[in-house]
Amino acid sequence: MIVLSALTATSLAAGCGDDEDGGGDVTTGIAPSTELADVTAEQLASACPRLKAGFDRVFQADKLIRAICTMGGAAVADTSADCVTFRDQCIEEANMPGSDTMDALDGIDEFNCEGSDDGELSQCTGTVRELETCFNDTLDAFDAALNQFTCDDASSVTEEDLGGFGEMFGEPPASCEAVGCPGGSPFSGEEESL
């Protein structure tokens, strides 16, 4: 549940912005050659804090707000300075209680380590190494999308450039196919139907 929830959130979230706190591959601490079907609930519970650290590096509410506001500013402003002004006002408004942005991000930056259950992995045919690669590739893809535009791009970004941003996360990276989980899982390598 823990791992699958994290990747589900990854595929549902959308935003964009600066590259802060990026980098570093997440490892579970479980022997990489271990078959996922053999991972115990205890091992999964032990791995969760490591997965959470990687997830938190990308999915911090303040980072997502800054990213969304940067992308919005780059799309509507003609100069870098105007983009920065837009971004700063957007961040201030987004952090106000009850803002639409905060409502939209509600739960996105959460990664729950409670209730570890190895049952969902028992149907997967891949290894821990393949799951780690899928997890890291998914986080890297999202982080790259968050950082594709800055205020320096203000004169060249249009709202149309942002139109398909959410669609970038409809399908897991190709590396997730090797994990061999049943269809519908974020690790199946198949597009999830929502």
Please tell me about this protein's structure.
The protein has helices at residues 2-12, 41-58, 61-76, 80-94, 100-105, 128-146, 159-162. The chain has one domain (2-17, 26-179). It is an all-alpha fold and 194 residues long. The radius of gyration is 18 Å and the shape is elongated. The two termini are 17 Å apart. Mean pLDDT is 76; it is low at 1-23. It is 46% helix and 0% strand. Helix 3 packs across helix 4.
Estimate the mean pLDDT confidence: 76
Q: Which structural class should the secondary elements be placed in?
A: mainly alpha
State the helical fraction.
40-55%
Label the overall shape.
elongated
Characterize the largest beta sheet: strand count, sense, and whether it forms a barrel.
none
The count of strands amounts to: 0
Gap from first CA to last CA: 17 Å
Unreliable sequence segments: 1-23
Radius of gyration: 18 Å
Beta-strand percentage range: under 5%
What is the tally of helical segments?
7
- Return the domain count: 1
State the order of secondary-structure elements, H for helix, E for strand. HHHHHHH
